[in-house]
C-alpha cells in the first residue's frame, strides 16, 4: 500500500512539475528530459508513468475522475440538483485556477482523441448516471428521461462550458457562472415529467 501511494505521489509530482514548466517555457519548448531533470528522476522513470509528454496533459482527466469520487462523498447528504451543481462547480474551479492548463489540456485532448481520454469521459458519465439513479431510487428526482441520457447532457454542458470559456467566448462571466446558467436551463427540462 505504501508503495502504491509513493507511485501516486511521484505521478502527481511529475504532473505538477510538467505544468509549471509548460507555463513558464511553453508546452512545445519543454522536453521529457527537462521534466525528468526537474523532478529529480531518470528519463526512463518518466516513461513508466506517462508514455509520451502529451499524456501529462491527459492526466488531468484521470485525476478529475478521482476528484469526482471525493466530491460525491463530500456532498452525499445534499439533494441531487444541488449536489450535481456543487460537483460540477468544484471540478470547474480546478480549471479556473489553471486557465493555461485548461487550454493545453483541451487542445491536446481534442487533437489526440486518445482512447484513454474517451474512457475518462465514459467513466465521468457513468459516475453522474449513478448519482441520478440513486436520486431516482430515493424519489428526490422524477424525470421521464433515463439516467444515462441525463448524465450525457450534463457532461455535455460541462465540456461545452470548458471549451467556450477556454476560447474566450464569454470573458465577462466566470466559468462557473456560465455553467450555472446552462445547468439551470437543462435542469428545468430534466424535472419535467
UniProtKB/TrEMBL annotation:
Organism (species): Ureibacillus sinduriensis BLB-1 = JCM 15800
HTH tetR-type domain segment(s): 8-68
PANTHER family in the cross-refs: ACREF/ENVCD OPERON REPRESSOR-RELATED, ACREF_ENVCD OPERON REPRESSOR-RELATED
A molecular function GO annotation: DNA binding
Pfam name, any one: TetR_N
UniProt KW keywords: DNA-binding
Name of the protein: HTH tetR-type domain-containing protein
Gene3D superfamilies hit by this protein: Tetracycline Repressor, domain 2
SUPFAM superfamilies xrefs: Homeodomain-like, Tetracyclin repressor-like, C-terminal domain
DNA-binding region: 31-50
InterPro entries noted in UniProt: DNA-bd_HTH_TetR-type_CS (IPR023772), Homeodomain-like_sf (IPR009057), HTH-type_Tx_Regulator (IPR050624), HTH_TetR (IPR001647), Tet_transcr_reg_TetR-rel_C_sf (IPR036271)
Amino acid at each position: 500500500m505504501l508503495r502504491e501511494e509513493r507511485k501516486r505521489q511521484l505521478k502527481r509530482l511529475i504532473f505538477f512539475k510538467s505544468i509549471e514548466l509548460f507555463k513558464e517555457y511553453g508546452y512545445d519548448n519543454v522536453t521529457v528530459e527537462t521534466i525528468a531533470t526537474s523532478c529529480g528522476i531518470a528519463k526512463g522513470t518518466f516513461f513508466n508513468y506517462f508514455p509520451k509528454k502529451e499524456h501529462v496533459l491527459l492526466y488531468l482527466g484521470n485525476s478529475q475522475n478521482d476528484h469526482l469520487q471525493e466530491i460525491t462523498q463530500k456532498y452525499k447528504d445534499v439533494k441531487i440538483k444541488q449536489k450535481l451543481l456543487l460537483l460540477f462547480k468544484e471540478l470547474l474551479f480546478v480549471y479556473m485556477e489553471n486557465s493555461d492548463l485548461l487550454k493545453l489540456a483541451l487542445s491536446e485532448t481534442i487533437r489526440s482523441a486518445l482512447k484513454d481520454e474517451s474512457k475518462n469521459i465514459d467513466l465521468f458519465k457513468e459516475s453522474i448516471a449513478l448519482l441520478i439513479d440513486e436520486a431516482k431510487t430515493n424519489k428526490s428526482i422524477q424525470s421521464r428521461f433515463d439516467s444515462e441520457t441525463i448524465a450525457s447532457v450534463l457532461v455535455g454542458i460541462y465540456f461545452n462550458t470548458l471549451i467556450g470559456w477556454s476560447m474566450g467566448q464569454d470573458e465577462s462571466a466566470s466559468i462557473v457562472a456560465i455553467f450555472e446558467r446552462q445547468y439551470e436551463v437543462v435542469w428545468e427540462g430534466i424535472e419535467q415529467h
